[in-house]
Predict the 3D structure of the following.
Amino acid sequence: MTTQEAAARYHELANQRKFIEIQDSLYDENVVCQEPEKAAAMGMAILTHGLEGVKAKGIARRAAMETLHSYTCSEPIVAGEFFSVVLKQEVTFKGKPRMSLEEVGIFQVTNNKIVKEQFFY
């Protein structure tokens, strides 16, 4: 799978909110997820190694949500072995007011799989 194909499939599945399918079909077993430093203040690990850890992080984040009001993933921009998307969501986390979140995700594709994801927000 080329970077362009991975980016297109990520975009398609993200807009359907099929996050587990994204991870199962596109991610390498040794994927690394990097969050910004401020993620630690929200109780999130800054670095997560391995597919199972990335899946667990996503499951925990979704479990903390009371309501996901909307979610969009922009068309990807592809350059070499990288692609980026803008992710936007309206969400209410348990015990918190509704909020708008916006982030840029950058993904590295090597040997047909996503080996790294890095988020900026």
User: Anything to note?
Assistant: The chain has a mean pLDDT of 96. The longest helix spans residues 3-15. Helices lie at 3-15, 19-26, 51-63. Residues 3-120 form a domain with the Nuclear Transport Factor 2; Chain: A, fold (CATH 3.10.450.50).
